[in-house]
């Protein structure tokens, strides 16, 4: 085994002999980075079925109707919701329900190298579309005809699982804004490395080029709203990956629920103090 | 209600798939019921990506124009287009179904870049499946030209008649299947596959799965809008897996059939077979240039005779031309000249000064002198100064001669190549009508 310290991120990485191939008289020893150690620990010390540490906060942007901050491990993002309010362009409105407009943006300093300015790149647009469609199915839009709900998400730091974090963040912000919803929307990633299914893939583990599945679901009923997959996945592993995704969703749900409850309690207490 | 859809299909029944191939290798049109999609694969030699120096490249591109349906806008990339691009990229590029290392010519210097362009001809539901199938069939059908690499690194590409072209090797055939969901009042979820246009509009959600028969899921896209249980998804994917095998075999069989026919030199049928092939197009270009050269030499002779007669006129014009260098004043010059003779003399002047290639534009002026304003001719003049390659000149000429058909009779020998193409156009339009 080879133990190496990465210069860029400071992680201690173990390179393990994976296989020995002989082809045409030449022997090649294939080594690969060890994503899961023999004791079942991942690169950052988590277990296989553990999500990273989650921290969230509601009501950070006083101007917007609803806002929230969500951090999972080193991935941090904030979301703001404006609405339901009068639609900006009359031609966009629908006569019997509200429309949802969503914007997804990563700041230039979110990754280890500074990204050059690309306002409307396809990746951001795709992510925005996914968030919009997820949210549209959960909000009770028929209560606000001819109105518009604007959602804006910024990823401040990205370490894998940005879209999942964004969906969680948007869910909190919508709750803060008071938009009626059927349930929380919780999202989590799951993946497969070295034939071991994992919950919550971070950036380093994404580099293993294994399949990464993003699942957004309603936690109480375990109904899946959105599913997205990167790379290839074998059929036999599909069930397990979806199961783990739903498990990750439950883990996130506990924390989100806790935060919302605390926030609501604070609001009630501050109202009591005012004598209202 | 009883599990029968509008067009009489069962819930999990597909529409009929037909594939037509064109004259070129790698050109095919797939019809999924009424949905028609055309895919064309072409190749060129480029430098590889620095991070992957011994791998070829593959680029996929989707075009949806208002031809596909009135709901698509011209010029704007619609959501459907983005979705299809994403689908093709993940199914074909990222799934690594194509052996990219086989496309390498010289590591770090030159590799083949395959380019698959998909055009949606008629959008009648389930574009994802159709586009994916079209690209896969086109890739399987495509043969790339044989090459020799010299010691100094130069690459010679042999034409198809010189050496046998090499087929592309698809390791795993990616198949895409779409399932649509509809929720009834009692909460029951109806799942059906291969939605048509009308069904797509009323349906509440779609699940698009890309598989290959080896049991790998290459892409899975399920954007919100419907809430599913895990069992529904599992059911869809199991069903997809069964159908994938059948689909992949069908495509392979059809491609094999066409390649066999090609060996027996059977001409492909249908409008796709009438589309002009690559070789034919290149031959037309060369024929056209040869014809042009002969015209130029005859015109040159004619004008030279006239020049001997009108010596003074020439000198006056030459003087004025020397004074002003920009094209605006040249415009005025031409404006003043109504006389055909003077115009030809002016042309002669141009020829004497400029190089031979610009003669093509004088040809243009003579051909179009009956027709439009002189202003438009000057636009060509401007163009000629900026791009001096004979290729572009000829293509503009082709374009011009296509529209004012009455003027094309002016120069008779040019018509040999032009009329051929215009005949092709007419035949194409007739066949599309018949279709």
Automatic annotation (TrEMBL), chain A:
Signal peptide: none annotated. It is found in: Cytoplasm; Nucleus, Nucleolus. One of its GO terms (cellular component) is cytoplasmic exosome (RNase complex). Keywords: Cytoplasm, Exosome. Its main location: cytoplasm. Pfam families: RNase_PH (PF01138), RNase_PH_C (PF03725). SUPFAM superfamilies: Ribonuclease PH domain 2-like, Ribosomal protein S5 domain 2-like. Residues 50-180, 183-247 form the Exoribonuclease phosphorolytic domain. One of its GO terms (biological process) is poly(A)-dependent snoRNA 3'-end processing. InterPro entries: ExoRNase_PH_dom1 (IPR001247), ExoRNase_PH_dom2 (IPR015847), ExoRNase_PH_dom2_sf (IPR036345), PNPase/RNase_PH_dom_sf (IPR027408), Ribosomal_Su5_D2-typ_SF (IPR020568), RNase_PH (IPR050080). The keyword Cytoplasm applies. One of its GO terms (molecular function) is RNA binding. CDD domains: RNase_PH_RRP41. Belongs to the RNase PH family. Component of the RNA exosome complex. Non-catalytic component of the RNA exosome complex which has 3'->5' exoribonuclease activity and participates in a multitude of cellular RNA processing and degradation events. This is Putative exosome complex component RRP41.
UniProtKB/TrEMBL annotation, chain B:
Keywords: Cytoplasm, Nucleus, RNA-binding. Residues 13-145, 173-242 form the Exoribonuclease phosphorolytic domain. GO terms for molecular function: mRNA 3'-UTR AU-rich region binding. It is found in: Cytoplasm; Nucleus. Residues 337-435 are annotated as: Disordered. Transmembrane segments: none annotated. GO terms for cellular component: cytoplasmic exosome (RNase complex); nuclear exosome (RNase complex). GO terms for biological process: exonucleolytic trimming to generate mature 3'-end of 5.8S rRNA from tricistronic rRNA transcript (SSU-rRNA, 5.8S rRNA, LSU-rRNA); nuclear mRNA surveillance; nuclear polyadenylation-dependent rRNA catabolic process; rRNA catabolic process; TRAMP-dependent tRNA surveillance pathway; U1 snRNA 3'-end processing; U4 snRNA 3'-end processing; U5 snRNA 3'-end processing. Its main location: cytoplasm. Belongs to the RNase PH family. This is Exosome complex component RRP45. It comes from Hirondellea gigas. The lineage of its organism: Eukaryota, Metazoa, Ecdysozoa, Arthropoda, Crustacea.
